[in-house]
Amino acid sequence: MTSSTWRHLPPAARAIAVAATDAVEAARERDPDPYDAAVDRLAALDPEQTGRVLGAVVRSLLEERHPDGLDGDDIRAALEHTVRTAGTWYEVDPQVMVVLLVGALGIHETDENAPLPPRALAAHAPLLVADLLQTRSFARYLESAFTEIQRSELHDA
């Protein structure tokens, strides 16, 4: 996906979209060098904004997979599958995955005194997204996340 795909977005959102798309695509290909390059770009962006966007994608994917609601077993299964699958080609920290997964669901807020480093979050979120996506289009979920965030910001204003 090229940056022109996201030209309708403001510059900060476009940067997130391009870096996240590159990272998710590299994760799907299980290609560590392009993945690390995309993760570096993603980690250099505002971690709060990036986390909000990718968290919305994760939440949407989980809600779609579990329309009747998620329980602890569903969350554990998603976590285990992602760690096991991504761990075959990339060094995965299961604790970072837990923070991402439950944070996306609004179950757990990270301790503001000891937030996870942006690089750790940027390196793990695309792995989680790629695993949850399977063969579905990331662009569709990413566009939906931006729309949801924009609606939320307009409502809060």
What does this structure look like?
The chain is mainly alpha-helical and 157 residues long. The protein has one domain. It is 71% helix and 0% strand. Helix 4 crosses helix 6. The model has no long low-confidence stretch (mean pLDDT 89).
Layout of SSEs?
Layout: H1 11-29, H2 32-43, H3 47-65, H4 72-86, H5 94-104, H6 118-133, H7 138-156
Helix pairs in contact: 1-2, 1-6, 1-7, 2-6, 3-5, 3-6, 3-7, 4-5, 4-6, 5-6
Give the CA-based shape: globular
Helix content: over 70%
How is the biggest beta sheet arranged?
none
Euclidean distance between termini CA atoms: 32 Å
Summarize the helix and strand pattern as letters. HHHHHHH
What's the gist of this structure?
The protein has one domain. The chain has seven helices and no strands.
Quick tags:
mainly alpha; globular; 71% helix; 157 residues; single chain
